[in-house]
Amino acid sequence: MSVVGIPILDNLYPVTMDLWPVQAKEFNRVWPFYENLKQGRFTTTKCKDCGHVPFPPRVICPECYSENLEYIDLPTKGKVLIFSEEVKGVPLGYDSPLIHAVIDLGVAPCRRMITKIINCPAGALKRGDEVQMVVFPVPPTPIEKGKAGTIMAERVFFAFEPVKK
Amino acid sequence: MSRNAVILGGGQCKWGVREAHLVDMFQEAGKACLDDIPGLKPKDIDGLIVATSYAGRCCFQVNTAPVIAERLGLKPTSICTRCDTLCAGGSTGIILAKGLVESGNADIVMVAGGEKLYTPQKWEIFYSELASVDHDWEAVHGMGLPPPFFSLTAQDHMINYGSKKEDFAAVSVANYNYAATNPVAQMQKTLTLEEAMAAPSVVPPLTLYDCCPITDGAAACIITTDEIAKKFSNRPLVYLRGCAQVSLSSLSVNFPGEHLADWKHTRIAAEKAYKRAKVSASDIKVAQTHDCFTISEVIEVEELGFCKKGEGGDFCSSKQIEIGGKVPVNTDGGLLAVGHPFGATGIRQGVEIMKQLQNRARHQVKDADIGLTHNLSGANAEHTILIYGREPVK
Fold this sequence. Notes:
The complex is a heterodimer of chains A (about 160) and B (about 400). Chain A is mostly beta strands and about 160 residues long.
């Protein structure tokens, strides 16, 4: 399918218009985060030298600049501190209601994490509600692999949803 | 003999939904700037700093500075570069120009900022605004368009300090009324508290007049030294007394402060800028703060020290931000009403403070001798402050 006004972009993938991260290890050194996400694990890096745990994951420790890092699990349940609800004027690529929340996962560094809440109708969420991580597929990325041609790299992403009472 | 940076003059083109290309608006702004300084010619200018963030996305144009220099007929020999700190781009350019002219590495620098944000199909600018925050960790959640983030901020202010929707509305009323007679403003109409309170919802508690519009526009100013300025202008000199730019962290986790309405990085920037300028908050006679949302101005008047923390709502609704109040704020209409073409905003703010200190502003603050500009960038990622004065720092 051609792009209106730019027919030369017929069937091509413009990474500059991609909402989702390019997650494949050919392009991203924090690819284990996304591989862990596919297993339902919410992870980040921990410094094996100084013990510092940042989020999002890194390739160096931002405290001591060590490269000696390991992936550790973060909680996948938390509670809503405050939230905003956008019903009209939601940008292309997102569904209404677009709900953003500051949530507390109970451990540093995720005591006040801004995230998206899905699977929740408008007007239903309350402050203090319990939410859990949910992983969903997003469109795969085409990656050129030389003579092997173009492969489609599978991708997932995460949001949080209300825990059913 | 030490070299002291001054703002010699400046101007902006008409801001709004413009039937114009980015480079057209830069030319209009360059002309407005030089029209403000009758003695100065393009050949006198030896430096150009361009502030634009969205040229790359909305105009498919990077390495912007040489293109703008060519259109403006400039042949810079000291500096020709671009800076991108989104909403603070213009102020960043002024800070860089100050360093260059004071160190003797440039003499007369034009700082020009602008954005062309209205694309032929509107979806693209909303979509492209997602680029203004951390793409993989924030924009991915749809956080790039700022109303949701400032809705959360406003709620945290209401919960922690008891501010009210009426306080936010008072900011939009003041700033719209300042802009009503400003011919280059995007919004040129008066606004009543009743109209502001009855406006349609954007993201609760924010309604239409709580949010600045999307704006096409450009602005330009000239930064030089006091000794050089005297050759080109008889107006009172306006010195760049001090500045600071602070970034503490991104927003997805670990945002600075106790909650979203506690702007630690603004406080640090203010403290540092006041110290460098050898002034205190009580010396500021007029300010241009970053009113991208009404809640931003409410928090900024607190963190800049114009009132106590938590009392920004009362400060604004008791008209302390209006002419005759304690610190008149955004006297040309601010981002809310003049508009916000990101890279141009800091220059517009600097030009308004210059006019206030030269006693030639549209809404003149009596005896203004010290003024301040402030920007926040993106979703509260960075704070930038400049302090202007009628005298150099001694």
